[in-house]
Amino acid sequence: MNPFAGALAAVSLSWRIFKRTIGAKYRKSFLGYFWMVAPALLITGGVTLASQAGVVMPGQSSLPQALSVFLGTLLWQVFAEAIEVPHQAFEGARSYLTRVHFSRAAIVLAQLYESLLTTAVRLTAAIVFVAFGHGLDVGGCLLLPVCFYGAVLLGLGIGALLMPFTQLFADLQQTLKLLLGYGLFLTPAMYQPQGDGAFAMIVRCNPISPLMDAARQAAAGEALAQPVVFVVVLGVGLLSTIAGLLLVRAVAPILIERMLLGGR
Amino acid sequence: MEPVIEAKGLSKTYRIYGNPYHQLLELMPWNKRQRHHAVHALHDVSFDVKPGECMGLVGSNGAGKSTLLKVLSGTTYPTAGSYAVRGRVTSLLELGAGFHMGFTGRENIFMNAAMMGFSRKEAQKKYQEIVDFSELGEFINAPVRTYSSGMGARLGFSVAVATEPDLLIIDEILAVGDMNFRRKCVDKIFDYKKRGKSMFFCSHSLYDVRQICERAIWMRSGRVQLLADAVTVTNEYATYENKIADGAGDPVPFRDAPVVPDRGVDHPHIVEGLVIDPATGQARNRFSPGDNAAVRVHIKNPKRERLVVAVGAMRTDGSLCFGHTTQFANLPFDFAEGHVTLYLDNLRLLSGEFTVPIWLFDEHGVHRFQERPAAQNLIVANRTKDIGLYLQEHRWTLEPIKK
Amino acid sequence: MTLVRNFDAATASRGAFSYLTSIVGYPTLVWRNRFMVQNFLRRDLLSRVNGSMLGVGWILLQPLFLFAVYYLVFGQLLRDRNAGGMSDSGFAIYLFSGVIVFHALSEATTTSCVMIVDNGNLVKKVAFPSEVMLVHVAASSIITFLVGAIVCFIAGWAMGVSQPGWLLLGLPLVMAVQFVLTLGIGLLLANLYVFLRDTAQLWRILTMAWMFLSPVFWEPKLLEDKVGPEWMVWIANCNPAFPLIQAYRLSLGGVSESLGAFWPQLGVASAWALGLFVIGYVFFMSRKHKYSDLI
């Protein structure tokens, strides 16, 4: 089979897998896509209430605080879910990976579609909320998708580079799950840390932080405060995704071999 | 004695919804329209099974057999009607369904036993028996995911039968493991029947149903079509099926019985089968209708197993003209070597050449040790001009009708 | 011959209240199936440890990590708001004790929610009392909690923050209450999830809100100061986790008058637990006969 036909087959197969998983996921679920933005809405509500009570210090952006929190939380979700894409793809396909021979790229692609779809839903929600809550200019409209899909790229790259190791070491996977579950608190999603304590340092080193800042500034119609950092993060995202997918391709046979042997 | 199963008017309706919203809408109090279509898997099924009885269940695919078995084993519930099951029930429907692939056979035995309601003590007492029966040996301490599919099924069967149920629900018994293990399974089931326990047995093999069951149910599209003794039900069902399939010939041939692989010298076998003249005891294969003939079978049975012999006559086109067994005549035997002779007095067959197949079965008539034809075919030559397969007793009358 | 099982479709669909009387038999049922519960529990604990190098360590590490994150985040934000002016170590122990209780509660309820559906293979194919299946989830969460509680107790004592006393003997009682509460909520959620797959998503969000409305980070004084809207204060007060967490803190030797008194807190918590358990059980049982077709 020539590589082009192979790629085509993988795409059509992955599309079918994707449709099936989406169907299974939202079978018996009535609110469907709403759940993709629900956590962000809840956190926004919570932070708003807390800041009314004077508990949480407001961030420094010209956006209303609720919007700022909403954008940050959404972006974090997009990022965190993209990190899990490669691992999830292999976990989910465990049952048929060892039985049927087919393009390995298809499963990662199928999982990626899902991530792209949920990102699109969240992006739409973000644009609608920003448009109503603050007003949106053309530049913001263009830049917000870049931020969101930049977060997907970054997450996907990190996830793909980690995948071989998370598949092999349960501990690493556990740690990653913990970090992703509560990592939201280590980002500037809810507020900007002040000063230079340990916490502020962690938040600043977080790779998703520049994207969050950029998204807010874009939504507010301001110029980017740190355009160089923003572009660098995007570039790193792109490069790591390419490197990660190459790595996945290289190690997939080894991982499947292990599955066949009955190991982890 | 009270019946082990008492089912009254069991019905089961599945609701199929086009999409989940319909289900939600239907739950709303203001909803008036029916938004699902109903599938009636069972409709008004009533029967009982007495202690020690084996009830058979036959029917084509989609007749509701599996649903009925699931209802009886308690994994799903009827939407109308009631049932009572007295005693411990074990079903062999889903062997090893509760097994967890990552854990060892040993751990899974305990897990499965626990789910069947055993205490730790009971489970520990049964453990060795289960391991021995399953023939897994050292593998018992390996994770189940490393098992071959046969090993998994063997373990599942072993755990299930070790529960000492009062009622065993079986779907196609003879489908576990290799031939030798199958034989063990069948023996276990018969042994269990001998101890006066009840069974509910579903099979597509009418032969098995007839061999094992006293009564049987024939189900058709969710309803009980016929509930009677097993022979009647299998005959009726076979006739009906043949009508559909437009097949011909014998409804329940011996050929359906599975074969036990040859074990060598110990294996019971037919040394020779001969068509003879009963008067002289000498081989003779040409007869006329009305003659006396006999088939003598020389059998060797070094391990003195209890055996059943069947003899038939088959036309060249493969249809069985008759078939008789020592089992139906209630003549069990277990000698190490000897002759089993079937006397065919007053032969009714008409002109033709017939092969004389001889079968050697185990005592239940379920497993076949050997099948071989007699040394020479039976040849019948008419003295009359009658045509057809056999000589029917007959007479004629002539009555012209006057207008 | 004993009557083992009977089923009548007409009686089964009579509604939830007809199952109220059978609740008395539940403890016996669990006791009779204790071997099954033990096995499930063993399997659960083993699968957490299997294939990981830290093994049992994870049971402790998870709440510790949560604690670290919350301490970093909320330590900065909330300390001066906690009007009692707690010391750093005081706040740390206060936070950690809250986190371990809530972590156990939320983890077990989230697991229970999907338990019946995720074990569809068993529920559909093996006839066994599925209402017993959630017991081991609650039990496992109590074990997780206990590991954290020991650490919390020792740390509190060593730092001189807590003053353990006779109330420590009440700890098993509080754990029993938590067990019943977890089981009750678990039954309710598992039942809902079979019919409505949105439940899992909704619960994940609700637990998050629940945590913020429970005295994990903040002291009850905050409520008395009436920060936040009226309804929020009301919800925070009407919260089964509220008396439970405080009772735990008291029995572990917490000494703050804002914690209230041990026995009243325990009383309120057990009322919540029993009430939720009865509701959860009754609804679970009244729909149990539909599960295998819906999974």
Structural summary, described in words:
The complex is a heterotrimer of chains A (about 260), B (about 400) and C (about 300). Chain A is globular. Chain A has one domain (about 30-260). Chain A is built from ten helices and no strands. Chain A has helices at about 5-25, 35-50, 65-90, 95, 105-135, 140-170, 170-180, 200-205, 210-220, 225-260. Chain B folds into two domains: about 5-245, 3-Layer(aba) Sandwich (Rossmann fold), CATH 3.40.50; about 270-380, Immunoglobulin-like. In chain B, strands 11, 13, 14, 16, 17, 18 and 19 form a seven-stranded mixed beta sheet that branches. A six-stranded mixed beta sheet of chain B has the order 5-6-7-3-8-9, sandwiched between helices. Chain B has eight helices and 19 strands. The longest helix of chain B has 16 residues, at about 180-195. Chain B is α/β, with parallel strands linked by helices. Chain C is globular. The model of chain C has no long low-confidence stretch (mean pLDDT about 85).
Q: How is the main sheet of chain C built?
A: none
* Count of strand segments of chain A: 0
- Count of the separate structural domains of chain C: 1
The N- and C-terminal alpha carbons of chain C lie at a distance of 34 Å
* Cα radius of gyration of chain C in angstroms: 20 Å
Order of helices and strands of chain C: EHHHHHHHHHHHHHH
Question: Low-confidence segments of chain A, ≥5 residues, pLDDT <50?
Answer: none
By secondary-structure content and strand pairing, the structural class of chain A works out as: mainly alpha
Which oligomerization state do the chains in this entry correspond to? heterotrimer
H/E order of the elements of chain A?
Answer: HHHHHHHHHH
Shape of chain A: globular
User: Which pair has the most extensive contact?
Assistant: B-C, 44 and 36 residues
Distance between the termini of chain A: 32 Å
**Biggest sheet architecture of chain A:** none
Mean of all residue-level pLDDT scores of chain C? 84
Q: Please count the beta strands of chain C (DSSP E, at least 2 residues each).
A: 1
Mean pLDDT of chain A: 78
Hey, roughly how much beta strand do the residues of chain A contain?
under 5%
Rg of chain A computed from alpha carbons, rounded to a whole number of angstroms: 20 Å
What would you call the shape of chain C? globular
Proportion of residues in helical segments of chain C: 55-70%
